[in-house]
Amino acid sequence: MMCLLGLASAETAWAQLPPKVQTPTNTKARSLLEKAQQQTKERDFIKAVETLNQLNQKFPSFGEAFLLKGSLLKAMGDNRGALAAYRDGLAKVPVEAIHASEYQLLGDLALSYGEYQTALEAYQKLMKVAPKAQKNLAKSQRQLLTCEFALDAMKHPVGEAPMPLPAPLNSFKFQYFPALTADNRFLLFTGRPAASSGEDLYVSRQNKDGSMGEPVPISPAINSSYNEGAGSISGDGKTLVFASCDRPKAIGNCDLYISRRTGNNWSTPVNLGLNVNSTEWDSQPSLSADGRTLYFTSTRRGGQGQEDIYVTTLQPDGNWSPAQNVGKPVNTPGKDMAPFIHASGTTLYYVTDGLVGMGGLDVFRCEKQPAGTWSEPRNLGFPLNTFENEASLFISSDNQKGFCSRSRASEEPPGGYRLSRERPVELFGFAVPPPVKARETSTYTQGRVFDANTKKPLKADVKLYDLDTDVLTQFVTSDPEYGDYTVVLNEGHHYAMYAAADKYLLKSLSFDYSNQHNFNPTALDIYLEPVRSGRSVVLNNLFFDTNKYDLKPQSRTELNRLIEFLRQYRDVQIEVSGYTDNVGAPDANLQLSQRRAQAVVEYLSGHGISVTRLRSKGYGEGHPLAANDSEAHRQLNRRIELHIL
Description:
- By secondary structure, the protein is of the alpha+beta class.
- The chain is built from eleven helices and 33 strands.
- Strand 31, helix 10 (586-605) and strand 32 form a beta-alpha-beta unit.
- Helix 4 (63-76) runs antiparallel to helix 5 (79-90) and helix 7 packs antiparallel against helix 8 (137-155).
- The protein is elongated, with a radius of gyration of 33 Å.
- It is found in: Cell outer membrane.
- It comes from Hymenobacter negativus.
- Residues 531-645 form the OmpA-like domain.
- Keywords: Cell outer membrane, Membrane, TPR repeat.
């Protein structure tokens, strides 16, 4: 049943029609037109449309009658019917300035249904006849570009169309904003089981066969009587940021909240505070893989458009930095929303209507540049983008699987009037085509941290450095109950990873993916030795050329971490021990191992560590860790160790 507001709008629209309809000379046609006008005055709008239908059937060349019907149907909410009426009517009248508004309406209606060719022709005719003062002419010029882009994009599709995810997913009325952990084991999304339900966060766990299990509420500590939606989870699944609206003591109408998981329990959510939230709407978060950089959408003042994307980072003191507008070229004068930062940290995806696309909100991608700026956004094309508003996008760390949410296709009922928000929203998946993939593919190393003596789990800081730049790229903390950790690694990089806990020796690990074709996830448990006399650890990220003892530049990351360790434990004295394999003369190997150990000591002493705390000693071929029967084993034996005296 039509609402009273719709009736009033229809009557107003009819009353405001310009007096441009030529009175038909045919008596029957004139009679039907007058009847329709009288029915409109009597507020019998459905009858008026029926009368105009008769007029259209009996006198199909009378184009103005179709335009009148289109105006009435548009005001009544039957956009599909209005589209057909305007299209038929404008095909029967001369292309004149008097019809500029109808061309504009036809173009907008056709574009809203993805009928790009019809819209293109309507906008082209509008540009020919429209007066310069035509309202929204600049917007129509932009829409014309949209039609041209879309028609070309549909001729050159990028990948296959997303498909609804299979059961037991998509069992709710609405489900959206999908997000995965780095290991693909947990799928997080916002769900509303029924139209009357509030938003809650749900998690689906991957089964052994790779399928996803039954969604369950994430935690009673998270879900509440308030709406919890648009969640983002860190790569290790231990940090959650989500949006919630109208909570007590909130800063704005919608704020961002954070919760952390210890063992199987989530902490009570905490408002991210004034450095992140504003008095306006803040939502749609996206966490970096290590949970220490946060992108989100905000309507706060001072932005470039209606909604803009902002970024904040977690500081060493545990506070988040004041949120900064990401700026151009990402943000535009339009709506810039739903950011997603890939696990690699190098590619940002988001939706915007501020750039030419398929119509409405389209998904774009841009890449981080060496200076920290972003490249020009690139439209992901058809079929990931359509004439409808796209919601959000998620690409798995390995660049293989993509996820998004979409309204389920449905036919409008007779007479129109169905609102788009009533259409169910489902989770979709797709295989990621090459142009859509993040610039860098990611994998992960995953395991647990233990005390080497007691074998009990440890809470430890696990840091990942890029050896070519000495830049900290990730910083996670192992779980204090289970000791588990997950660190994301990108292809094409050589990494040093360090695990450190209070009163334990620094553990040094190396991952070289600079030229490696095997880029599979690794399982790696870490055992930390207490800082105690007689304990030692291999320093895996010190590098020398063959038969040389000069430290290569990539060694500075390890050396600087070693300096930090010695400054933390000022009473510790160490021996730097050098070892070689058995290739070459034993005397030469002994001398080489001594010189390499001495090179490390000289670096440490040259950076403020007292020489009284340092000793170097070369052991040559002695004390091998493995038999010298393969290159892999010989590489293990060529090493520098840190030994506590």
